[in-house]
Amino acid sequence: MKSSISESELLRLADLNLVDFWCQSAKWIPHPEILYQQDTVFINSALDFPACSFAFNLSSTTDESPEAFLARARGFFAGRKKAFSLLLRGHADQTIIQLCKDKKFFLVSESPGMVLDAPVKQRPAPTGAELQWVNTVDALAGFRQVVTEAYQDLQFPPDVSSNYFMRPERVLEPQFILGLVYLNGAPVCAALALLSHGIGGIYWVGTLKHARRMGLAEYCVTEVGNAAFAAGARKIILQASKFGEPVYAKIGYREFTRYPWFICSSK
Q: Residue 2: inside a domain, yes or no?
């Protein structure tokens, strides 16, 4: 395996890891529909929430017009969902992004894609904190509890976040590394890494409100990222929320692209 990755390779691998995460996590919920068509990946989640069903463009060319891409996406979701998400790439989808802006689609976020190039020196755990690796159904219940509460601040309804963990046997598969931080014996902070395409992707980072600004997310994400490196990942990537970006920058992550996220009507 190559030890170095060019910036162009990084962009491609990061896109593939991101899409793989949403495809695999869609399978954590019963009855997903996933379709690959013309370098586009469609995910029709069983959850009736626009931020859970996606169209991703993975084309490396610009042969298709943005209008044609949007028409195909709407065509797939017509009769399936009233609204869905377009998760786009700042480095490859500029014409589609501009069309979404021209049509005044709701912009959920424009998250920076960030990368960590090497493992981080292990730091002491914050006072009273202990990280445990999630590998049982009982431990996963604590992980689920943390992200369900924490993601309400990102406008995810509790039942949506909670339902992503309906099939624990799929969440506990070996390509996922889940870390859960306990503070004085109670679960308060969580992070997950997906190993795919030779890299690791960090997802589902969350901290309960009463435990924020204590360095727990920095500690948890660092430990999970280092575990992914130890498992063979050549880089670690993530898409940062407005809350997480300064934490990740402090760890050593750097921005390499942006991922605009729009909500689109299927009509």
A: no
- The residue segments making up the domain with residue 229 are 129-257
* Same domain membership, residue 98 and residue 22: yes
| Average pLDDT over the chain, rounded to an integer | 95
CA atoms of 66 and 69, how far apart (whole Å): 5
Q: Is there a single domain that holds both residue 145 and residue 247?
A: yes
Nearest to 2 by CA among 258, 232, 265, 240: 232
Contacts 24+ apart (CB under 8 A), 97-104: 97/260, 98/66, 99/66, 99/67, 99/70, 100/260, 100/262, 100/264
Please check whether residue 36 is in contact with residue 59, taking contact to mean a CB–CB distance below 8 angstroms.
no
User: Tokens 């006072």 sit at which residue?
Assistant: 127
Is residue 107 located within the same domain as residue 51? yes
Residues 192 and 107 reside in one and the same domain: no
Spatial separation of the C-alpha atoms in residues 115 and 112, rounded to whole Å: 10
**Span between the terminal Cα atoms of the chain, in Å:** 46
**DSSP 8-class letter at 53:** S
CB-based burial, 143-156: b 16+ in 10 Å, e otherwise: bbbbbbbbbeeeeb
Q: pLDDT (tens digit, 9 = 90+) per residue, 234-262?
A: 999 999 998 899 999 999 999 999 999 99
**Residue 178's pLDDT is what?**
98
Domain count, the chain: 2
Please state at what angle helix 94-102 crosses helix 66-77, rounded to 10 degrees.
70
- Give a yes or no: residue 134 inside a domain: yes
Can you tell me the distance from the alpha carbon of 250 to that of 216, in angstroms, rounded to the nearest whole number? Answer: 13
